[in-house]
Amino acid sequence: MRPTFLEVNLNQLKTNLQNIRAHTKTKMMVMVKANAYGHGVDGVAPFIEPHTDYFGVALVEEGIHLRQLGITKPILVAGGTLIEQLPLFFEYDLTLTASSPDLLTATDHLAFSRRQPIKVHLKIDTGMERVGVHEYEAEEFLGQSLSCSQFVQIEGIYTHLANSETAPSQAELSSGGAKQTPTHLARASARNDGFVESTLQLERFQEVLRFYEKRSLPTPLRHVCNSGGILNLPDAHLDMVRPGVLFYGVYPSRNIEKKIDVKPALTWKSKVAYSKITQPGRSISYGSLYQVEGSPKRIVTIPCGYGDGYFRRMTNQARVIINGKPYRQVGRICMDQFMVNVEGDDVKVGDDVILLGNQITVEHFADWTGTNEYEVMTNISARVPRVYVR
Description:
Blueprint: E1 5-9, H1 10-24, E2 27-31, H2 33-37, H3 41-48, E3 54-57, H4 60-68, E4 75-77, H5 86-92, E5 95-98, H6 101-114, E6 118-125, E7 133-134, H7 138-146, E8 152-158, H8 170-175, H9 182-214, E9 221-223, H10 227-232, E10 240-241, E11 266-271, E12 274-278, E13 283-284, E14 290-291, E15 297-302, E16 319-322, E17 325-330, E18 338-341, E19 352-356, H11 362-369, H12 373-378, E20 386-389
Parallel strand pairs: 1-20, 2-3, 2-10, 3-4, 4-5, 5-6, 6-7, 6-8, 8-9
Antiparallel strand pairs: 1-11, 11-19, 12-15, 13-14, 15-18, 16-17, 16-19, 17-18
């Protein structure tokens, strides 16, 4: 195995999920799209299956892959689906997100012609403006679902929150902002705006659900909350929640109140592949963006690069830990390698390197690259081996 690899702590993922369930007291749909947020779905999904009620993916291909891994729990494909993809849902027993009347009609026709049942979750757009039927057009859509054949099983109904990670803190709520600075007030106002929007989305969704109450019909399985909603909107927990980034031990926002004990399960490791002394005045890597100054420095090479998801944008900003000590990455990050200045320390070929984990967090990576934590994790390349530990 190559010396650069991801170590995934499966027991930590299990603990994270248990703590989320204890908080919400609902069913769980673990989101394992995008290769389980970079953690490696092949190892994560089979391990966590006994501890979840449902799996969520974005693509039908991701659902098929889970079935090929031997997953038997229900799998919801949450992304947009084309009509020509519908036969795959029947073949692999996948749950469809019906996001339009046309898709629901096509599903009904195919299910009836095959005499084969299919589970469906109706998608209501309450403010995300991505996929789904708008809440103000939902009554006709729900009426259509009632007229489907017996082979179309309307198992669930859901929406997705656009600003769930933002909410005013308890201090902001209790203080009323009377003694806070304009900067604090502006930040609180932005968070409050997001919270108000999420609350409005929940109200719109609840109004849609009154369709069933008015007709004395059983309501399908209701789910609204992503990770931010789990933390900020207890009234929206309903029947099931969909933890994504929170399941992997990362909070969806820096400012969010940490109400649930979760910890990262990911450590990105490598080893020193080369070590040399570089003289003052010599430049390092492509573009000569870093030059050794003052005195000779030991420059070591790490066998990892932007082809592995170690972003080129982190050039001259990133830090690594070698033998327990932090050092600065220097020179432009290459596709397969990058360099580190260890000053005068005696660092040797084969010494252990931590790229991500311990004191180096996904939040650090996000800051160095100007992105968010989600992109950091999901961009770790498939060519980096995943090693699963318990």
